[in-house]
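Amidase domain-containing protein structure dump, as promised
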Amino acid sequence: MSVAFLADQAKSETTKDDLYNAAQKLGFEIPDGPETEAYLHLLQSAEAVMKRIQSDDDYIHPDLVPVETTKPRTYWESASSENPLNAWRHRCDITAADPSSNELRGRKIAIKDNISIGGMPTTVGTFSELLCEDHGNLPLSPIDASVVSRILKAGATIKGSTNCENYCASPLSFSSASGPVHNAWLHGHTSGGSSSGSASLVAASIVQRDKGISLEETVDIAIGGDQAGSVRIPAAYSGIYGLKPTYGLIPYTGAVPLAPMLDHLGPLATSLEDIALLLQVMAGYDGIDPRMSPESPLRHQVQDYPRLLSEFRHRRLEEGKQAGSGLTIGLLNGSFDVQGLSDEVRDTVRRSAREFFTAAGAKVVDISIPMHSDGSLIWTAATRMSMSQWVCQGKTGGFLSFLPPHIQAQWPPDQRMYELLTASNPAIVNVMLSGPFLEEQFGPKIEAKANRKAFELRAAYDKAFKQVDILVTPCAPTVAMPHPDMQSSVMDKLSAAIGVTTNTAPFNVTGHPALSVPCGFGSGSKTPEVKLPIGMQLVGRRWDDMSVLTAAAVFEEGKRIAKSALPAM
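structure tokens r here:
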């Protein structure tokens, strides 16, 4: 390693005490004398380099410069009467002045509030004082995230950012700094997290249409983020579709990370067609995101998912063949025995999968992947030690990356930060405490081993895909539950979330595409008279997201066939 230059020591405020303190934290002492002078000069030089970069103007990548719009970008907050689900964070009305296609023309889209929208603040679900130095006005984003640019250039209108969970660190929907986000089907109940607002607004369009209940302005497609299930879990609780695509298929550039090896962006929608459409618009290499790999398609190589889905639905079948002929569906045994899974969800997912896939001509089998039970443990061990560095401290991932420049997270934490987060989302305090504790107890070698175990877990799933085409698991383990009492204890707040992502988190570390599909309704323990959605998770081979979409289409066809066979009432 070379030294850039040697600083003028007379201009530095770094002293021997600073050097000795740094050495003490590392567990050794530097003897006074020439060694002290040498290392002090080197520290002063490193400090001078950082101050130079700190004082320079920032750089905005030309591909992230906000898209020119039909009118100046403005934003506002909805009155509570216009935001009954507390799903909107900031409202806007943004349309590209010169879109390059009409794929999303006329479509209204909402964006999770950890994704940068030029000219708007990004709150990541937390308190403004934790994101800006003056504890006042949030800085506005100088960039459009890659997916935001692509959506605008496809002709869509972005209607606003959606509330998400505090630091995106909850699978439920009570922790946002602006208050809980409500399930569109039953107020006071979780919509799932962390893409809580996105899911609620999409589900609200169904509830308004089918039940005639006014929930103010809604959307039928939205963007979420998924690190452990944060697209799929809200989709399951809300009765809509939610896709976590193959890792590296959609660029994460311009979104606030939770952990680089887990970060995914994905669509939520009321229909498979809209999932396919949004996937096509967002997917493809952007030349910036280090999460993308040589396997990631270039933009012109992205599959035409809407056309392929339409062709699959309308293809002419040979005599005696059905939509699911030749498709083998594997019910993942261990996923139906996870702790906290309700009997109602387990039975509904298993029964509907067997009945509807079989009705459409698919073969349904049971399959065991013993390592699946360790998936959420591997997820935790592979990321927990360093997670607060990404989400709380704004650390880069070690590879050339472009983090949102307007996010200036407060660090180190103080008593005020602790109290705010303990009251709203103690999970993030746990993340912050876990980092230094685990580092001291185990060191980075265990995190590195857990990363290797993630490869082993991926191989276990890949082996199963030699026997089946699609894996089926329950998604969320129960129907939506009531929000916890925010005056309750730390453990009371966290207990409801324990085990919620057991069946979803493993596929974040392995990178397989996974889709939550509405498969039925169940009853809440405290409101048995209200039927709440149940979601089934379909998992496919990596880089074969299309097979997951077509499997969901087969499931829909089987459901139609089964219902048409019922006697008329």
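The chain is about 35% helix and 10% strand.
lmk if u need the other ones
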